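User: Cof-type HAD-IIB family hydrolase. Structure?
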Amino acid sequence: MISIIASDMDGTLLNNEMTVSDFNADAIRQAQQQGVHFIVSTGRRYSEAQPLIAAHGITAPLITLNGAEVYDASGKMLDMVPITKTVSRAIFHTLISKGYYFEVVGSDGIYSNSKAKRIDQIAHLLTNLNPNTTFKIAVTLASARLELMNINYVDNYDTLLNDPKKHIMKIIAFSEAGPSELKPLSDDLLAKHSSIKITSSSRSNIEINNVNAQKGIAVERYANMLNTPMSDVMAIGDNNNDVSMLKLAGVSYAMGNASPEVKQLANHVTDTNVNDGVGKAILEVLAKQ
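Assistant: Predicted structure:
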């Protein structure tokens, strides 16, 4: 009997227009009406994720930044798991010395040290999601999208490190070379720092969190609050940063567009994110209840 449904956003709940389809929203509402708790579990910040479900009149708890922050349905923060400043400083040094562009998600927003490189990364993401979109058009779209986001541009990330009021929640490093470069980088960082966890939300990035900031850990903590065993939890995802919750959930669904690793791990495969895979998976489970 499924009591909790946890869904990733990008590549999962969201379509290629970065919105929640009416079909997916209706399925979520049906689950909630039947007493099933729906929770979003995403790598996004709260301010980026919450409006996407609120647009459909849906309220739900949110696990954000891969599990670094947890919010209840009213928007109250329940938990926060930052990376220590000492470890963050060492990671910054490694990334800078190796020439990687990276962004930092602080407790008060996203930080970048290059507007041009941020636009470039968003443009690459858009072309990956929409292969028919030219890179030139993607740059234009990325520039327009950037104006809607609250990005803090700094000359030096030491600004974050030296401010005791600011916490570092996640570090995202990018490389268009993909796993051939990012896998050795991840191995190097993990060998140096046992207190971090590295996942990814696309082939061109790695996402660095505190080792205790994982979607699976956060979902399990939420389930414990409701006295619900993980056997009664359903998780849906598409990429590496969803693995921890897919492993722990009693019922796991990989998206049709999921990575091979995720498809092999999950015990079910649903349709793609552009074909309402989340909604179809939810309705399939509800029909069996």
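The chain has a mean pLDDT of 92. The chain has two domains: 4-81+213-288, 85-210.
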